[in-house]
Amino acid sequence: MKTRIITAIVALAIFIPILIAGGLWIDLAASVLSVIGLSEVYIMRKRIIVSMDFLIAAIGVLLLSLPEKALTWLPHDFSRFDLAYVFVALLLVLMVFTKNNFNFEDAGVTILSMFYIGNGFHYLAAIRNSDSGGLSLLLFGMIIVWVTDSGAYFVGRKFGKHKLYPAISPNKTWEGSLGGVILAVVFALIYMFGFQQYQNIPTIPQNTWLLIVITIVLSVAGQLGDLVESAYKRYYGVKDSGKILPGHGGILDRFDSMLFVLPLIHSLGFI
Q1: Buried b / exposed e across 128-149, counting CB within 10 Å, b at 16+?
Q2: Alpha helices in the chain (DSSP H)
Q3: What DSSP character marks residue 192?
């Protein structure tokens, strides 16, 4: 517990100033986190990081995490996804030159990881630096994720009786999941109305029932992101995605829900 607390204090001491500063700092943080996240997938799969396929994938995940303004030198209508596909093609070609030592399944997992991780962290910075609420909107998403996670844990421990999905995550319960959603709704209402955050986030309509629906959708998405990480960790037979955060696991352990919620905030039209 002491290790977890110390790690949390140090991590927050670094992360909070970056969140507040935004701009280039959050762009750099998103890029670094995306590469670390990709490396955790490689380590879980027991693949070598010092390799050509990781180098190609790392450049790909970096391109996907970068802000759109960093790629203004690209031809018109050529997006970061188009550029990332160049590295998808390189990974596929690599199968030929390695004589399938790096095979199609390896390429598939690597490419999926690139897009899942790179796009998720892209929106960490994109939301923070947007004109649609910026820090307030990002905190809205983070509060929903954090409260859902904590609420599900404590409610599940106290009242949990019915397993949510034991084949993937044996400790999660339906009671905990529902409790997390309810608490997320309560805290989202307090954040938006009690702290007048509607004034800072013009893209979210000032409608209580609509806010409740939005919060439920994001809360459920966060839980799905958590279950997705549980699924691939169980598949690879690991407890944590990494060890970079002593007592807390890896970067993917801390951002599993956010990697689902942040792109969804964009998809729902809030930035």
Answers
A1: bbbebbbbbbbbbbbbbbbbbb
A2: 2-21, 23-44, 52-65, 80-97, 104-128, 135-159, 174-189, 208-236, 251-255, 258-267
A3: I
Contact 141, 218 (CB under 8 A): yes
The pLDDT tens digits of the residues spanning 94-131 come to: 999 999 999 999 999 999 999 999 999 999 999 999 99
Residue 79 has what pLDDT? 85
Tokens of 106: 């390896």
**Token pair of 208 as six digits:** 């209580």
CB within 8 Å of 257: residues ≥ 6 apart? 145, 148, 149, 221, 222, 223, 225, 226
Indicate the pTM of the whole model. 0.94
CA torsion 60-65-73-59 (nearest 10°) is -20
Residue 118, phi then psi, degrees to nearest 5:
-60, -45
Centre a 10 Å sphere on the Cβ of residue 163 and count the other Cβ atoms it contains. Answer: 14
Do 62 and 35 touch, CB atoms closer than 8 A?
Answer: yes
Helix (H, G, I), strand (E, B) or coil at 238: coil
Length of the chain: 271
DSSP 50: S
Take residue 107 and report the two structure tokens written for it. Answer: 């390429």
- DSSP category for residue 75: P
User: E strands, the chain, where?
Assistant: 163-165, 169-173
Phi first, then psi: give them for residue 163, nearest 5 degrees. -65, 135
Give me 242's structure tokens: 């990494």
